[in-house]
């Protein structure tokens, strides 16, 4: 990555998370990072770190060798025309749901396009990012992009045709876990358990369960059975999942997530 300049369009949560990982791992010095955002007040904290900041997207595109588009899918119609004449032969990474590589190539002729789907835990360096295979991108450049996301968590390479569905696995899914935790904590508080205690135990339990999924070598189904004792409390609770068709509920949620990604798509 020697001498390469990294650019970010947008200073929202995801770009901030990626940028934090890059700085944490010292992959790029601050003076070789550019960041733009339409609201100048969001840039001051980054400027203090030595990052080059601006409200002008074109300035970032002009100076960057690798450009990460961290804007909402609805904003691409406004942003891409600004960049069109500045990104030929440069690497442009889109982290937006639904925006296809073919659409980006048509709007940004000559650019090397890579699609990625990160998630918000990147903010803590424990994210999960899916990157679409890009056969027309040089292997060295593609590996550089993978390293950018590995700086803040786990990376998997998938086919671009799977991008609308991978959002169920790592993109939107943190919100589902947060929703579950919210219910657990509120239930605990309702029976007199301290909220901080309930949240701490819930978070630790989720973290421990995640490590078991990643490290035990067992399937989620096997781990679920391992928690259950015949006639015990866990089986009693899971019986409600069966009665209320929890599997069907989750599949419906995932289908709607994919459907919305396709609706946003271009």
UniProtKB/TrEMBL annotation:
Family to which the UniProt record says this protein belongs: Belongs to the pyrroline-5-carboxylate reductase family.
Protein name: Pyrroline-5-carboxylate reductase
Function comment: Catalyzes the reduction of 1-pyrroline-5-carboxylate (PCA) to L-proline.
GO CC annotation terms, alphabetical: cytoplasm
Residues reported to bind NADP(+): 9-14
UniProt keyword list: Amino-acid biosynthesis, Cytoplasm, NADP, Oxidoreductase, Proline biosynthesis
Coiled coil location: none
Biological process, per Gene Ontology: L-proline biosynthetic process
An example Gene Ontology molecular-function term: pyrroline-5-carboxylate reductase activity
Binding-site residues, NADPH: 57
EC category: oxidoreductase
NCBIfam families per UniProt: proC
Pfam families found in the cross-reference section: F420_oxidored, P5CR_dimer
Enzyme Commission no: 1.5.1.2
């Amino acid at each position: 990555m020697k001498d390469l300049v990294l650019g970010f369009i947008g200073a929202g949560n995801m770009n901030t998370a990626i940028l934090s990982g890059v700085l944490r791992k010292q992959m790029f010095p601050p003076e070789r990072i550019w960041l733009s955002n339409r609201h100048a007040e969001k840039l001051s904290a980054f400027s203090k770190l030595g990052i080059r900041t601006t409200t002008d997207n074109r300035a970032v595109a002009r100076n960057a060798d690798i450009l990460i588009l961290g804007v909402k899918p609805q904003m691409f119609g406004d942003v891409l025309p600004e960049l069109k004449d500045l990104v030929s032969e440069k690497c442009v990474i889109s982290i937006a749901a639904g925006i296809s590589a073919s659409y980006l190539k048509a709007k940004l002729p000559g650019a090397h396009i890579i699609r990625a789907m990160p998630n918000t835990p990147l903010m803590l360096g424990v994210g999960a990012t899916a990157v679409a295979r890009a056969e027309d991108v040089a292997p060295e450049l593609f590996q550089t992009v993978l390293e950018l996301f590995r700086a803040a968590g786990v990376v998997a390479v998938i086919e671009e045709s799977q991008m609308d569905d991978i959002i169920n696995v790592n993109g939107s899914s943190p919100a589902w876990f947060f929703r579950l935790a919210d219910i657990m904590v509120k239930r605990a508080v309702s029976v007199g358990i301290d909220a901080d205690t309930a949240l701490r135990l819930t978070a630790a339990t989720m973290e421990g369960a995640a490590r078991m999924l990643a490290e035990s070598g067992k399937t989620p189904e096997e781990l679920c059975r391992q928690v259950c004792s015949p006639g015990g409390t866990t089986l009693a609770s899971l019986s409600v999942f069966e009665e209320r068709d929890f599997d069907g509920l989750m599949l419906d949620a995932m289908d709607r997530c994919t459907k919305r990604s396709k609706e946003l798509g271009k």
